[in-house]
């Protein structure tokens, strides 16, 4: 079983704060890393697909970076808003596998 | 686009009964669907991969006779928990893959909370 870890497990920030969290994954056989945003009682929503070492992707105030050599990805949220409150999941896919290995998520709570 | 629905969103059943959960891709055809289970404070764990028109592939440790998966059409996969027991209480979530996507993107349903009493 591949080990995908996310930290921190939970995070409480004030509105307007910027924040970041980490997804760690095996550095060998890397194929892609997916980030999802998951609000309670809704479907996980795809944020980014990271594929190349050094990738940086951005969607509005949310951005992500990827380091496949050391096996980590960072997700950044600039100027957090209450609507950013959700659980952020990462999922790793390696070569020769076509299934996702998920981290346990980082639960973000943004206080107004 | 790429919407997946799941029904029911929650269900309570008595020990020994069976429960069926449906997963539908609403605006695309999904040759492959996945079923995951999540226990509290743990990650989503893949239970099985469901391919339209063929038998599901189960992950190690998942009882195929207990968790029956049927993928009879390109838009519907079902998971039946047979003879449910309290230890089967969990959160079950499905996903579907759009054929041909290079990086295996999956689109998820909202999940089903199963409580077995």
Question: What is this structure's SSE topology?
Answer:
The complex is a heterodimer of chains A (112) and B (117).
Chain A (H helix, E strand, L loop, with lengths): L4 E3 L2 E5 L4 E6 L5 E9 L6 E6 L5 E4 L2 E6 L4 E6 L8 E9 L6 E2 L3 E6 L1
Parallel strand pairs in A: 2-11
Antiparallel strand pairs in A: 1-3, 3-8, 4-5, 4-9, 6-7, 7-8, 9-10, 9-11
Chain B lengths: L3 E4 L2 E4 L5 E7 L6 E7 L6 E7 L5 E2 L8 E7 L2 E6 L8 E8 L8 E3 L3 E5 L1
Labels describing this entry:
heterodimer, A: 112 residues, mainly beta, five-stranded antiparallel β-sheet, 11 strands, B: 117 residues, four-stranded antiparallel β-sheet, 0% helix, 51% strand
Give a structural overview.
The complex is a heterodimer of chains A (112) and B (117). By secondary structure, chain A is mainly beta. Chain A is 0% helix and 55% strand. Chain A is built from no helices and eleven strands. Chain A has strands spanning 5-7, 10-14, 19-24, 30-38, 45-50, 56-59, 62-67, 72-77, 86-94, 101-102, 106-111. With 117 residues, chain B is mainly beta. Chain B has strands at residues 4-7, 10-13, 19-25, 32-38, 45-51, 57-58, 67-73, 76-81, 90-97, 106-108, 112-116. Chain B is globular. The termini of chain B are far apart. The mean pLDDT of chain B is 93. The interface between A and B is medium-sized, with 23 and 21 residues.
